């Protein structure tokens, strides 16, 4: 590279023979004094060493010699100014290359404008004095001028004792950029645009200038610590040898190299680099995805997304985090924060706790536990001044002042500080929680959070937690959730894979292994399709716990094509402040079809389906359990379904539209069918036949309706005569109301098939 050749720039100063009026005794600027007619300057025509040269007597403490020509200063270019000099008489001075930095506005102050001094020690000895000037503060550059100067007036200074006489050969200025940069360079160096790399000087402008000059090339950030004092966007590809220092709020958008490895190199630390990359992802970087490029990040503390993006309160544009691994490193940063406080709950304000003692120590996202509190209830907001907390769900235990425990788990990705987050996607990422950390804490509000094709391995407490409605339309697709408690008895585990407070969750084709509970779902419109969850243990005849828990009565949801292993689908209304049935819908809107249910070494009273009303008066008003396979291995089960009457029973007199049909039972003592077809045989003539449903009807339901009576063969009287009349039916007979009677017009015998129901079908 040579600017004189490639760009046609005039670098060489005029020869002395062209006239001393072209050489200034001051700074070289227009109007300054020249050496034309000066008493201490003369041309020598035929010096033995130099030919035509300038002879100059030193009269001042600094005898200046500056070219009046304007030598251009170009970003990224480096000039060497050189002169040969010899002393011929008088005192021996020192000599140095010097310049005067100029812009269109005038002199640019604060620049180094002199090179190293060289002492003349012998008369007649030719010495060479030189210095290098350029925009960047690089090794070997004597006068780094940065970007502000556009040109300079160059020459030399005589210093030291006055009275000496020297001769100076014509000066040479040449482009030596090639000494600093490769001959075929495809990058620009930020130092060439004024970057200091000292960790103190704000190099933001230098980075922006290098980016503007890149023009299709990449940017090199050489060794050093570069302080960037504000947000900056770099469009060109960039490579880091040195590292960056920035304020927390400064967003570094590396648009040409937007991936985790580049950010890790930029900040010299994986965690710091990921934080800045994620911060940039929430800006407008011309990218909607952050690629971890298969890299593993050692995570030493929770990543608080709000803290790294303090200027963002909510975000509603699609963003994707993909293709990498997070590995939790043990440390105190992952320890739970726990507080116990007395507080007052009133059913009139079901999502508020008031008069909360010690409230300043209760963080947003803390899980609430205590008498009358359902599973997975969280603190959504804290008002210290008012002494009140906003809850994710109501308590079922009624009004009163009680003591509650607030436990704040620590998560790898913590979005709880954002008011709202929409359309954030996690794709092909593995979270190695190592039993030390929970995984993802959702924002209090938001829609369409998705995690797909990912692994959550050994979370300490929770895999994905919702503290509000940030789970609206939550999507979990083709993921693996592996508990840290797999070797423990099911009843001793405490970890939860996922909870939901809002509607329309889609959990599809995912696998969950040995959590205490797998899915705790409030809201409605959920689709649970094609998953496999295990919750067994290695004990014989052991209790099993709920895996899928619906926490509101009317769910409008489907559980289809899943493999449900050693766990119960439990249906509750534990998120009701007034759990007794009132004007709301009761339990209904649930379809359970095409699933495989398995138990291994379970206690015989274990069931795969349980309804648990937390208040009185409830009933089922829409449930279909069909085309499922139920199989008990190493120990038969009594039946597949039950009502948990810990708090209340169901009202069998109001059951409506309940279907149990086309299911397969293996290792189950009592099949559950509704409507059920029963065969009644009467060997001796009787006027009243009793047909008992036995245990076929689900949930201990009553025999409320008979939809069909079909005789198989003739119905005959005691004398053997055929009777063509039909009986009338009386329902809800017997102590348990699980039988019906058929009353004939006379005593008859024979066989009939009776189709009866425990519900009203409409």
TrEMBL record:
Source taxon at top rank: Bacteria
What is the name listed in the Swiss-Prot or TrEMBL entry for this protein?
Right-handed parallel beta-helix repeat-containing protein
Organism phylogeny? Bacteria, Pseudomonadati, Pseudomonadota, Alphaproteobacteria, Rhodobacterales
- Organism name: Paenirhodobacter huangdaonensis
Pfam families, A to Z: Pect-lyase_RHGA_epim
Q: Which residues form the Rhamnogalacturonase A/B/Epimerase-like pectate lyase domain?
A: 187-247
């Amino acid at each position: 590279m040579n600017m004189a050749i490639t760009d046609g720039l005039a670098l060489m100063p005029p020869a002395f023979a062209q006239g001393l009026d072209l050489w200034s005794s001051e700074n070289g600027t227009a109007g300054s004094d020249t050496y034309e007619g000066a008493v201490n300057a003369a041309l020598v025509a035929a010096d033995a060493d130099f030919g035509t040269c300038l002879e100059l007597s030193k009269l001042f403490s600094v005898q200046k010699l500056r070219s009046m020509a304007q030598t251009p200063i170009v970003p990224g270019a480096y000039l060497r100014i050189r002169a040969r000099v010899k002393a011929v008489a008088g005192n021996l001075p020192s000599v140095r290359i010097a310049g005067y930095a100029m812009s269109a506005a005038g002199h640019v102050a604060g620049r180094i404008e002199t090179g190293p001094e060289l002492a003349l020690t012998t008369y007649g000895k030719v010495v060479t004095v030189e210095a290098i000037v350029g925009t960047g503060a690089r090794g070997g550059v004597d006068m780094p001028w940065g970007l502000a100067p556009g040109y300079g007036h160059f020459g030399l200074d005589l210093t030291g004792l006055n009275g000496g006489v020297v001769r100076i050969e014509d000066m040479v200025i040449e482009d030596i950029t090639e000494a600093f940069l490769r001959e075929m360079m495809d990058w620009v160096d930020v130092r060439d645009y004024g970057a200091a790399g000292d960790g103190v000087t704000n190099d933001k402008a230098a980075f922006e200038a290098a980016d503007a000059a890149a023009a299709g090339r990449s940017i090199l950030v050489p060794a050093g610590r570069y302080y960037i004092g504000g947000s900056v966007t770099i469009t060109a590809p960039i490579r880091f040898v040195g590292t960056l220092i920035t304020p927390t709020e400064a967003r570094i958008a590396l648009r040409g190299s937007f991936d985790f490895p580049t950010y890790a190199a930029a900040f010299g630390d994986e965690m710091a680099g990921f934080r800045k990359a994620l911060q940039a992802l929430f800006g407008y970087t011309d990218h909607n995805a952050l690629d971890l490029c298969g890299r593993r990040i050692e995570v030493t503390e929770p990543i608080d997304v709000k803290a790294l993006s303090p200027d963002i309160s909510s975000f509603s544009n699609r963003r994707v985090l993909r293709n990498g691994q997070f590995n939790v490193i043990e440390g105190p940063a992952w320890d739970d924060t726990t507080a116990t406080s007395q507080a007052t709950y009133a059913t009139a304000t079901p999502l508020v706790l008031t008069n909360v003692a010690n409230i300043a120590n209760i963080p947003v996202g803390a899980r609430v536990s205590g008498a009358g509190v359902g599973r997975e209830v969280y603190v959504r907001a804290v008002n210290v001044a008012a002494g009140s907390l906003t809850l994710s769900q109501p308590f079922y235990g009624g009004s009163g002042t009680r003591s509650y425990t607030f436990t704040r788990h620590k998560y790898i990705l913590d979005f709880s500080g954002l008011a709202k987050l929409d359309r954030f996607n996690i794709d092909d990422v593995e979270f190695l929680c190592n039993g030390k950390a929970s995984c993802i804490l959702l924002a209090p509000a938001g829609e369409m959070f998705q995690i797909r094709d990912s692994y959550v391995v050994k979370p300490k407490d929770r895999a994905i937690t919702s503290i509000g409605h940030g789970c609206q339309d939550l999507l979990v697709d083709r993921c693996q959730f592996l508990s840290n408690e797999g070797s423990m008895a099911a009843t001793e585990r405490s970890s939860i894979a996922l909870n939901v407070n809002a509607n329309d969750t889609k959990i599809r084709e995912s696998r969950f292994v040995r959590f205490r509970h797998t899915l705790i779902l409030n809201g409605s419109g959920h689709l649970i399709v094609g998953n496999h969850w295990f919750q067994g243990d290695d004990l014989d005849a052991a209790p099993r716990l709920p895996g899928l828990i619906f926490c509101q009565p009317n769910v409008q949801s489907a559980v289809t094509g899943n493999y449900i292993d050693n766990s119960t689908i439990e249906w509750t209304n534990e998120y009701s402040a007034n759990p007794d049935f009132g004007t709301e819908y009761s339990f209904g809107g649930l379809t359970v079809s095409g699933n495989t249910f398995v138990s291994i070494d379970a206690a015989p009273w274990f069931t795969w389906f349980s309804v648990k009303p937390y208040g009185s008066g409830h009933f089922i008003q829409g449930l279909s359990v069909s085309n499922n396979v139920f199989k008990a291995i190493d120990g038969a089960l009594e039946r597949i379904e039950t009502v948990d009457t810990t708090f209340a029973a169901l009202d069998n007199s109001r059951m409506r539209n309940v279907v149990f049909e086309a299911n397969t039972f293996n290792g189950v003592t009592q099949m559950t069918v509704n409507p059920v077809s029963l065969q009644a045989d009467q060997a001796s003539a009787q006027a009243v036949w009793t047909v008992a449903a036995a245990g076929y009807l689900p949930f201990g339901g009553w025999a409320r309706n008979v939809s069909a009576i079909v005789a198989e063969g003739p119905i005959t009287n005691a004398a053997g005569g055929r009777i063509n009349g039909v009986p009338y039916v009386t329902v809800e007979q017997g102590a348990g109301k699980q039988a019906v009677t058929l009353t004939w017009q006379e005593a008859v015998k024979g066989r009939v098939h009776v189709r009866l129901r425990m519900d009203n079908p409409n």
